[in-house]
Amino acid sequence: MLQNKSSYKQIFKATSIFGGVQLFNIIIAVFRSKIVAILLGPAGMGIVSLFSTTIGLMTEVTNFGLGTAAVKNVAAADGSGDAQLLGRTVAVFRRLVWVTGGLGFILTLVFAPWLSELAFGNKSYTVSFMILSVTLLFSQISAGQNVILQGMRKIQYMAKASLLGSLAGLLISVPLYYFFREEGIVSAIIITAISSLLLTWYFADKIKIPKVNVDRPVIKAVGEDMLKMGFLISMSGFITMATAYIVRIFISNTGGLADVGLFTAGFAIISTYVGMIFTAMGTDYYPRLSSFSKDNGMCKEAINQQAEIAILILSPILMVFLVFVQWGVVLLYSKDFLAIVTMIHWAALGIFFKALSWSIAFIFLAKSASKVFFWNEMAANIYILLFNILGYRLGGLTGLGISFLLAYFIYFIQVALVSRKLYDFTINKGLVKIFVIQFSLAVLCFSVVYFLNKSAAYSLGVVLIVFSCIYSWRELDRKIGIREMISNRLIK
């Protein structure tokens, strides 16, 4: 019991540290999104989205998944207590980061005309893509520094780098958008990438890691494991990015750039503002799960604990979105973006199943089951793409929200069945109880917003939110002693 309580506390502590930074990032993102929405409008946001998605696609093609795969290697080397092994692992990894980043830079530079044609249907943005090619090098090196911080579980350094990076992004991008409008988009992306690189480099440099000279045989021996797993992760990431890219191109060709901007804005709320919980938890969860990945029993316990905490923290937040998202959209963007409200309602319900599936799917990475991970994600992306295209064609933006819910419901069933067959994983009764109660409250919130007038919906919605908060508080207090933690912190 004490060990379980300690595990829950560790999960909650890591989440609260990085979650606090993510909350700050959200506040920054609110100001930035609001200003960008006003200055650029839906069409301008559509251009930003196509630039970002295209560059992201090229990144996934060339980064060999090192940003994910190498976390396990660094964590294992750090946990071994062998300083020379750690130094050798980091030295090899850094070499690979420069090589893959340079590859991304060169390929994007060479294929800039084709990327412009693919994204915008013409070659007018060729020069823009040529200029943006350097961000692939900057981003890969920055991601490499983050891998070192995450693998060694330097959560506070990661938090500071993320916090300062968000602030720098705001201070850089807003003036450029204000003075240059759409012409400032490329400059904003580049300068933001540079600032992120400098910050991650600064904090990674604060860690004392022995400098070890490595030759080609060592690079080949140590790097082979990273690249082998990373390649399939990279291919999976590429397929995911390609799926998102095809959806945006389909929306652009069918409904126009404005709908691309609306779609991007809607899922930015879900992925950025709600997704902070996933980011905060994943920062510590992945290396922690990797540390005892050979023990199926411990993995099962850790996954259930992680999912419980995720549902308890996310549920009240999601219910606030369900009830007050219309106000949030106007606050975050403008009245021109109100068309995304219903899409967000459906997607918010899908986040519940994403929380479960997200917690389970990490076991494939922790166990270095790269092929299982790849085919699992491949299958998911196929039906996600089909659902999105069908959803948009039949229901427009609302259809995309429904497709998100359906896709993650099926994905949850998929990862649960695969992990049960391969690793004897099962969901415990405690998690089932927490999920059923919180999801039921969310469905009630969804129903009152849909079928009642605004006044009644707000009143009943607030009552349901309070119930959700009380239940989460009681469960968290029972599992981690949250009252005691807060009291001790206040006394200190």
Poorly predicted residue ranges:
none
Strand content: under 5%
Q: What is the subunit arrangement here?
A: single chain
Estimate the helix proportion, in percent: over 70%
Class computed from helices, strands and strand pairing: mainly alpha
The total strand number stands at 0
Rg, Å, rounded: 22 Å
Biggest sheet architecture: none
Cα separation of the termini: 27 Å
How would you describe the shape? globular
Mean pLDDT: 81
How many domains? The number is 1
Order of helices and strands: HHHHHHHHHHHHHHHHH
State the helix count.
17
Summary keywords:
single chain; 492 residues; mainly alpha; 88% helix; globular
Give a description of the structure.
It is a single chain. By secondary structure, the protein is mainly alpha-helical. Helices cover about 90% and strands about 0% of the residues. It has 17 helices and no strands. The chain has helices spanning about 1-60, 65-80, 85-110, 110-120, 125-130, 135-150, 155-180, 185-205, 215-255, 255-275, 275-290, 295-330, 340-365, 370-425, 430-450, 455-480, 480-490. Helix 1 (about 1-60) crosses helix 7, helix 6 (about 135-150) packs parallel to helix 8 and helix 13 (about 340-365) runs antiparallel to helix 15 (about 430-450). The longest helix has about 60 residues, at about 1-60. The radius of gyration is 22 Å and the shape is globular.
